[in-house]
Amino acid sequence: MNLEYTKKLQKLTSENRKIFLNVANKIKFNYAKSETAADIVIEDMLDHLLEAQSNGMHAQQFFGQNYQEYAEEIIEELPDTKPIDKLWHFAFIVCLTLSSSLLPFSIIEMIRYLVTGKHIMLHSISFTLNTALFIILLIILISFTLNSMKNNAFREKKSMFIFIVIFSLMVSIPLVLYTVLPIGPKFYLDYRFAIPSELLLLILTIWIYRNKVSPS
């Protein structure tokens, strides 16, 4: 969504905004349907709600008592997501996962080598298994976050607590398991090759998001 949408959103009363976001997020985060079409419908819905609000109508009157049913009716009318769009979403998650996990490690490797002259040695089997575990937990975290946003509940205390728990497990479990179970031949990631590659991957991640996942 653009800046104009944000400005319009702020014109709603706090109660009307809460109800609108409850409906809009259910539509926005339904990835079986076209995101571009959903954005158009949501912006149009916001314009009509602002007009209704100026005439003294409350959002509850605008959407009716059952917000879920209203959202589902709109979702049914939206075109399905194209298979290529689903592939772009998958590519975005994969690139984001790899760049966000490997780049910080490579920077730490660079600092260690420049300070001590020694590389961080890794055990191949343990590294592979724990990287896979980290990716799985990250996907769970992303799925939980998107689902919470869809239900307009991400800022609730329960959701924030679950988010912190999953994030803590994502960081700690692979690290602990790698420390106590070093398995496989040793190797190291040469930061001189790793960091440029991971920066290019990060740039690709940003490009995919801006041009394919959430184009303006």
What are the main properties of this structure?
mainly alpha; 77% helix; two-stranded antiparallel sheet; 216 residues; elongated; 9 helices
Write a short abstract of this structure.
Helices cover 77% and strands 2% of the residues. The chain has 216 residues and is mostly helical. The radius of gyration is 22 Å and the shape is elongated.
How is the largest sheet built, in terms of strand order?
1-2
Mean pLDDT: 84
What gyration radius follows from the Cα positions, in whole Å?
A: 22 Å
Distance between the termini: 7 Å
The number of helical runs is: 9
The low-pLDDT segments are none
Secondary structure tally: strands: 2
Shape: elongated
Strand content: under 5%
Largest sheet entry: 2 strands, antiparallel
Helix content: over 70%
SS content category: mainly alpha
Q: H/E element string?
A: HHHHHHEHHEH
Report on the structure:
This protein is an all-alpha fold and 216 residues long. It is built from 9 helices and 2 strands, in the order H-H-H-H-H-H-E-H-H-E-H. The protein has a two-stranded antiparallel ribbon with strand order 1-2. Helix 6 crosses helix 7. It is elongated and about 70 Å long. The model has no long low-confidence stretch (mean pLDDT 84).
